[in-house]
Amino acid sequence: MAELVPLRTAIEQLVRDGDVVALEGFTHLIPHAAGHEVIRQRRRDLTLVRMTPDVVYDQLVGMGCARKLVFSWGGNPGVGSLHRVRDAVEHDWPRPLELEEHSHAGMAAAYAAGAANLPFGVVRGYRDTDLASQTNVERITCPFTGEQLAAVPAHRPDAGIVHAQQADRRGNVQLWGITGVQKEVVLASKRSIVTVEEVVDELEPRPGAVVLPHWVIDAVSHVPGGAHPSYALGYYDRDNEFYVRWAEISRERDIFAQWMEENVLRESVLA
Amino acid sequence: MAVSAARRLQDGEVCFVGIGLPSLAANLARATHAPNCVLIYESGTIGAKPTELPLSIGDGELAVTADAVVSVPEMFAYWLQGERIDIGFLGAAQIDRHGNLNSTVIGDYDHPKVRLPGGGGAPEIATSVRDVFVMLKQSRRSFVERLDFKTSVGERVRVVVTDLGVLEPDGDGELRLTHVHPGVEPEEVRAATAWDLSIAEDLAVTEAPSEAELGALRSLRTKGAPG
Known about the structure:
The complex is a heterodimer. By secondary structure, chain A is of the alpha/beta class.
């Protein structure tokens, strides 16, 4: 049952050291503010799950919150590498980062299986690739046709965090535009947090929207701008310049640490 | 490169597009000879008609102009693995003579020299679309004898467009040089390839970009991010 609570309270109560945590968003509605709150609360030993880890995961990894990353494509879209993730993988700084990597189709199937409370998802991919031997998949045979397929274990995060445009006062949530894998993340996770741009008296139906009823969400937090520098369709555009700037901020450890101190650790989110 | 790839798209084909050169090529085709190409971006937008080039595959412009927006699990299950897509574009850090691609690591997997972004949609794109178009710059570091890591398989690769020319598979599935771009000598292309690249008997020179193509390119570029 969704409670409308400040973001700080939501993260305090629902994200714990050692958790498997998924903050999802496919370039749109990425829950940056929630990721920053996880950093401020100095969570440790997290297994971070995300199809497309980008800037906020670079920040979480660079601040030492994660011990493992489960992903399918990691980069700064349209710009280049994630320097903090690479530093962790290539030089163990600030701590070693274990990788479990899938294809997008594998990740999507794993979330969908988690949402359906099934043990695994099925894909045709991975065949004849080196990915099959590095990732967590098993060959299975279709009992009806004999076809060889790959089984991907379901994602069941301890905590799933997404950002949406709107909630009503009961905690029902609506998001629209590119809705990615957010519905599956909320349904697959044991505990879930949704940050929203706006709390409204009544949700107006939107074409193509995903509506999540309040009783599948644990906490809703009102965080206007909570997706910045990604975007919230109907509210603000993607801050493309920030993504370009991030390449410079994140390249060196000192500059990164100073930026995080000034822009994340000192900032208090009052919502 | 964008012009060469764009020319190979037929009007009405359904294309699975990534950001950068593939997006530029597909939008160039749509602005010139193939106005009915259907652009699908893996973020879930089907039939996107961007007027400017997106910086990321999930830009709002794509969702607003699309015929339909679907979830990511639906995109990969129903549309991609459901084999409803004609052409898929892939890039990579390394390619071998059979069109197998590496976008995962340079060096050893556990102790990489360079950790690359990873496979993303590539493993399933490579086995689910009818024809794979590869676009990457040609050098001995990228056109290798042996991949450091096989991220996706090459069996459906139909064409590789580089900054020097065009490679296409022969009857045995080995890539050979079929076109050089204007001003490029075949020996330059062989020198930029780590395997012993064979050259097609009917090697052709890519036709220079037309006025219409150049105009469309300029128009796309000035409105959007660098392609």
